[in-house]
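Chapter summary example: a protein plus magnesium ion.
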Amino acid sequence: MVMLDIINLRTHFPSPDGLVKAVDAVDLQIEKRERLGLIGETGCGKTVLGMSIIRLLQPSTRVQGRIIYNGRDLLELNEKEMRLLRGKEIAMILQNPTTSLNPVLKVGDQIAEVLQLHMGLDKREAKAKAVQMLAATMIPEASKRADQYPHELSGGMKERVMIAMGLAGQPSFVIADEPTKGLDVGTKSEIVRLIRDMTTDRSMLMITHDLAAAGEICDRIAVMYAGELLEEASAKTILSDPQHPYTQGFIQSLPSRGLQPIPGSSPSLIDPPQGCRFHPRCPKAMEICKKEHPPMIKLDNGHFARCFLCA
Ligand SMILES: Nc1ncnc2c1ncn2[C@@H]1O[C@H](COP(=O)(O)OP(=O)(O)OP(=O)(O)O)[C@@H](O)[C@H]1O
Ligand SMILES: [Mg+2]
């Protein structure tokens, strides 16, 4: 059963230099209890895609298309209806704990706020439950930590607080934005395990640069480049048999595979290259790639690639 159906989503920001097309004609489906990884290099539009779903973008943003969540188009809900869903049905674990947590509120109180708002608990119940949520994230000495301020916690602990806060309202759909960023190797693998265990009966969009983490947690992976999706398949297939030259390059650029960066830099989102957006950097580019925009081509079982080489 499809839980989230994104149809032809375009999220564009007006700017003095023109429209920044951060998300451009994205189609994406996430099934109930499916965990989908979204990967791609910095600035390609991953966070903007997540923010478009939960509708946390400034009012001047132009969002077009449809985002059907359990049969309702989120883009047609008013702010009040959206507020009822946010945190309770759909929650986002934001990209940067240091700037996302409120520096002047104890972390336990920040989690308790979500619980009061979405679970209808009174203050005392919410505080007790917040400590339980923190303990569930395996934070050491949860009740002591709940009484501390964000700056008193390590990076890994702050990430645990973000996870506890994101999951406090028992959302069915979670968007996790770079939950392992900036953590040391040991902490990273603990957080990966934690996210995997805490999302087994939920749907998730996990935004990450960390393909190994995506491989461990996610059922499927979608690859984004310059505002659009270039490839989509099961996590196993993306890791072992990527078909798009960009995905192949992205995998080669990982530290575990030798850190071979893709030559060239990300294209402009205001005026992306004609034809295939990746063609100026593609080692296998053909004449047609400069002229025509490739469609998503269906390969075998649920594998799609936006590349003429696959036609
Ligand atoms: N509010 C905004 N106004 C104008 N442009 C924006 C805004 N937010 C994001 N952008 C632009 O949209 C593009 C996509 O940004 P986004 O944050 O989604 O990238 P990302 O893929 O999440 O990158 P990273 O991996 O570094 O987090 C970037 O070029 C960014 O500068
Ligand atoms: Mg981001």
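Key point: The longest strand covers residues 2-15.
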